[in-house]
User: Fold this.
Amino acid sequence: MQSYISNGFNICDNFTPISFFESISNPPKEDDYGFTTISDFQVTMQDYLDKLHAKKRDKALIDFDCYKSIEEILKNPSNTAISTAQFRYWAKKMFELSPGETKVVCHNGKPVAIKETIYEILLDAHKIANHGGRDKTSAIVKSSFSWIPKELIARFVRCCPTCRFKRNGNHLDTFDSCSPPSTIDYTDLFLDAMSIEASMPSTTLWEILAGEFK
Assistant:
């Protein structure tokens, strides 16, 4: 299987319909308590957004509707009927379409992660990292995707029950460790998010990118 993490692979230049994850076969261990659940992640993701400044919140993550608007602007740059002039300017400045027949919205050469798929991306990356922590998971994430804030990656790992087990001396903690430290500077975190590039897609996400977004 070809590696899509190393050797400078750029999905926006090499968009071909194959599965990125032919196998993720790390058998569960006695101390494996699973991964962050989607419900826990949705709660902490909303908390992250709520604590951003209102002006930054709308563009901190790219949801499906925003993605489609950006895609339309890039495909029809002279169409002034799409959204607002400010949004069109931002879309043209920050994003580009991948070359080839299948067009994908990219930022700095990496596909933009859509808000609705971020959990799946982080779950796959954390599986590949084998619960390796924030930095290892983040490195896998940003090798193939963009527009996933590093703080969300940190929160995903913080919520992971297996990682909590390791952090607490092989004892599962009983407090809500998904909550972020109170001293986080969310302005700096948002600026980091503008340059973050992110993870390997799963088969399901691939089907979304290769199918629904044509």
Observations:
- Residues 45 and 192 are 16 Å apart (CA to CA).
- The chain has one domain: 38-212.
